[in-house]
Amino acid sequence: MRTLILIVCLLSTLETSAQPGKHPGKSLPTTLAVRTQLFDQEWVFLKDSVSGAEQPEYDDSGWRRLRLPHDWSIEDLPGQGSEAIVGPFSKTSVGATSTGYAVGGTGWYRKTFTLKSAYQAKNISIQFDGVYRNVDVWLNGHHLGYHAYGYTPFVFDLTPYLRPADQPNVLAVRVRNEGQNTRWYTGSGIYRHVWLTIAEPVHLAPWGIVITTPQVSSKAAQVQISTNVKNDQASAAQVTVQVSLQTSDGQFVKDIKKTVTLTDQAIVTQTLSIPQPTLWSVDTPYLYRATITIWQNNRKVDSLSSQFGIRTIHFDAQTGFTLNGRRILLKGGCVHHDNGPLGAVAIDRAEERKVELLKANGFNAVRSSHNPPSPAFLDACDRLGMLVIDEAFDMWERLKKPHDYHLDFDTWWERDLTAMIQRDRNHPSIILWSIGNEISERADSSGLVITKKMVSLVHKLDLTRPTTEAICSFWEHPGMQWDASAKAFALLDVGGYNYEWKHYESDHQQFPNRIMVGTETFAKEAFENWQQVEKHPYVIGDFVWTAMDYMGETAIGHSLMQPKSEKDSTTAVLPWPWFNAYCGDLDLIGTKKPQSYYRDVVWRNSPIQMAVHAPIPNGMKESVTNWGWPDEHQSWTWPGAEGKPLQVRVFTRSSRVQLLLNGHQIGDQTLPDSSIVAIFSVPYQPGTLEAVSLHNGQETGRVRLTTTSAAHHIRLTADRPTLKAGPDELAYISAEVVDAQENTVPTTETSLSFQVSGEGYLAAVGNGNPTDMASFQQPERKTYRGRCLAIIRPGETKGIIKVKASANGLQSAEITLVIH
Fold first, then answer.
1. How far apart (Å, rounded) are the C-alpha atoms in residues 73 and 89?
2. Rg (CA), the chain
3. Contact by Cβ (8 Å): 240, 295
4. Tens digits of per-residue pLDDT, 641-694?
5. Which residue intervals define the domain Glycoside hydrolase family in the entry (predicted)?
């Protein structure tokens, strides 16, 4: 396998310095500090399939005004109060269990703006980072185009249809999220950012900067920048391309210039050397900055800055995956693109927090299942040091749902795969391109042809990273034997195995050079999977399904009580009121779940953890799905279970476990090398349950669970008490019901009311309960196992935001956020 070298990362370096005006259309300012600006402000919206809304004279005065990004599927539906409609959920949802009973439909967006005369000779375009889905765009009644896929970016040139200076221009966008088109919650609408670019006739092409580092050592790194420069003038133009490099703190490193003559466009390649580079890694995600400036007739006509990292990656079956020459085991998790209570809305801080949560819980890698993520998510992975498998598609020509992307695949796959790679190839966090997930036709003649085309395109666009595909044999092609997938694996650089870890060793015997990665695995098989990763260098990592809970695929992670006399349930999904998959290491609001504590021990991040199973009624047994986890918790508060035996599981890699209750030893077990779980049966009595791990007689770890007292008051904690003014910021306020000793009371499920005042507003509320259907937008939410979450979004003004939470019978709490 070839050595794969870093590319640079294009981060969110394009900041708006000018705000589009209020409807019906205020002029954009004449002078822009940057050539690309955020175009999220002052849109109007209607959820309806009206006709004629593409025409500029259409009366939209009654439409709702909003700021993008926006997801209408997370908003409360009309008809609240009926048994069939709760918050954003409807029993008649076409998506049903797949979308978590959320509703799609058709929606329209419109925006009115004017341009000053200084812009009349400019090249003006609009970029959408993500719209779900089937979107048509018009400017002043002219159809600019259509885009089918809900996850890839697209650009339209506005220039030919713009009106003269100071006359209103009307953008109209129709979004159709109709039918059964997905297996999970997608959201609906313009759920990612929109950008307006105002450029000279000579300008940088969209995603036209490619930065690689062909040679890297501790002494020097060679940085190669290829710039796609376009010329929309009728005549040739002589231009100078200047590249300047800076350190992360803005210190000048080096620059270089090259002069070329353009007819229509050209790729200009320049190479610089950075002495003693600081390498990008998961522990030290150091980023440089490259600024590319285009000069024409001694005048600066275009300029863009891009942060990038320097690192090397290498894959082979003998040494595994190495980053900067050091073997890294991929501690991975799969995530969908939603942001919990916010729905699909891709606010920058929400995307960043998701990565922070994963890092804090031991993950060093993430798979974007099963579609390209937002730019903000990848930016966060670059800044925080999270490795990424960037995935393109969930299906190809064969359907998984009647109205899904298979209808568009033949027409759109090449454009969408190209857009993903061109947009994302400068991110140092990305180490693998995935061309598909559980593709039915993967090993058929038609699928092999598609695979060859896709792999060829990926390698044409990016020679520095390998391709993979997530392959399974359970459900995407019933009856196909596992060995039949060998033809598909042979076309890939790295073989993705979904739930197939038992084939690792036998496949290695047949294909000793095949590199393998667990692209999806069950949480309850984490130990077995990780043993394979640690034992075999050709198995480079393990990606659990999933790292975080998500809406849709309802209840695939459930545990179910049923009579002992019955066969174990084989039901994968459960109906209303389930809306959440509930299979994540973290719940919908980011709270750590029991399986995550187990994984801490599996990954050797913790010496010992303990979980207590909820009481099982007499005559009943527990049935747990493949993606599920037993109904156990980090709790020793079980009122009503006094004297009844509770199962206690202690997780440790040490050889011996002692269990104590209220200071008295009640258990002592020696673990075999093949297990990290000690199981005890303990009659419940309130107090303190304590587990101690030992190895060769020496204590290696200790964990305690203490019975809580009665609920006393509310405690509010902000993830960040100080934040910047602006719509891309959020504060996550954890609201917990605690006893007088400040312990969270896990048995409390009570409604908390939130009041927000000052320079911000309540963006969403939520909890981790997968069956608690309720509004995500009203200022009230029940606690689940003692806690819920409020998400606060600041405005544009400096000041303070006060958040107060109250509930019947509890002391209220208030917290102040500072906005600067």
1. 9
2. 27
3. yes
4. 999 999 999 999 999 999 999 999 999 999 999 999 999 999 999 999 999 999
5. 714-816
Mean pLDDT of the chain: 95
Query: Degrees (nearest 5) of the Cα angle 545, 547, 550?
Result: 85
Residue 116 located in a structural domain: yes
Convert the pLDDT of each residue in 484-520 to its tens digit. 999 999 999 999 999 999 999 999 999 999 999 999 9
Q: Show the DSSP H helices in 47-89 as ranges.
A: none
CA dihedral 708, 714, 720, 722 (to 10 degrees): -150
| Spatial separation of the C-alpha atoms in residues 97 and 75, rounded to whole Å | 18
Q: Per the domain annotation, does 569 fall within a domain? A: no
Cross-strand pairs, 522: none
Give the relative orientation of helices 375-384 and 348-360 as an angle to the nearest 10 degrees.
40
3-class DSSP state of 139: strand
One domain for residues 420 and 556: yes
Residues 696 and 726 in one domain: no
**Strand ranges (DSSP E) for 522-642?**
539-544, 559-563, 608-613, 620-624, 632-633
Instruction: Decide if pLDDT at 22 tops 50.
Output: no
Lowest mean pLDDT: which of 8-17, 369-378, 448-457? 8-17
467-503 CB burial, b ≥16 within 10 A, e <16: bbbbbbbeebbeeeeeeebeebbebbbbbbbbbbbeb
- In this structure, what token pair is assigned to residue 266? 């050209």
CB atoms within 10 A of CB 272: 17
Distance CA 28, CA 204 (A): 22
The pLDDT value given to residue 63: 99
The parent domain of residue 656 ranges over: 594-706
Question: Is cis: bond before 683, omega within 30 of 0?
Answer: no
Spatial separation of the C-alpha atoms in residues 411 and 465, rounded to whole Å:
26
Same domain? For 217 and 138 the reply is: no
Report the pLDDT value the prediction gives residue 18, as an integer from 0 to 100: 30
Looking at the structure, do residues 195 and 217 belong to the same domain, yes or no? no
Strand segments, DSSP code E, in 634-712 are: 645-652, 656-661, 664-670, 677-683, 688-695, 698-706
138 SS3 class: strand
Q: Which amino acid is at 465?
A: R
Question: Within a domain: residue 477?
Answer: yes
The secondary structure of 270-305 as a DSSP string is EEEEEESPPPB-SS-B--EEEEEEEEETTEEEEEEE
For the segment 106-164, what is each residue's pLDDT rounded down to a tens digit? 999 999 999 988 888 899 999 999 999 999 999 999 999 999 999 999 999 999 999 99
Number of structural domains the chain divides into: 5
Q: How many CB atoms lie within 10 A of CB 327?
A: 12
Q: Note whether residue 574 is domain-resident.
A: no
pTM > 0.90: yes or no = yes
CB neighbour list of residue 354: distance below 8 Å, 6 or more residues apart: 335, 339, 377, 380, 548, 590
**Under the phi-then-psi rule, with left for phi > 0, alpha for psi from -120 to 50, and beta for the rest, what region is 42?**
left
d(CA 176, CA 291) in angstroms, rounded, equals 39
Mean pLDDT of 567-583: 94
Per-residue pLDDT at 474:
66
Say if residues 501 and 527 touch (Cβ distance below 8 Å).
no
Give yes or no: residues 516 and 645 share one domain.
Answer: no
Report the candidate in 185, 205, 246 with the shortest Cα–Cα distance to residue 8.
246
Distance CA 191, CA 183 (A): 18
pLDDT tens per residue, range 188-211: 999 999 999 999 999 999 999 999
CB 580 within 8 A of CB 554: yes
What's the rounded Cα separation, in Å, for the pair 646 and 648? Answer: 6
State pLDDT tens for residues 1-20.
Answer: 333 333 333 333 322 223 33
Last residue within a domain, chosen from 177, 199, 221? 199
Other residues' Cβ atoms within 10 Å of the Cβ of residue 261? 10
Residue 480 has pLDDT above 80, yes or no: no
Q: Any idea what the CATH number is for the domain that residue 671 is in?
A: 2.60.40.10
Same-domain pairing of 359 and 402? yes
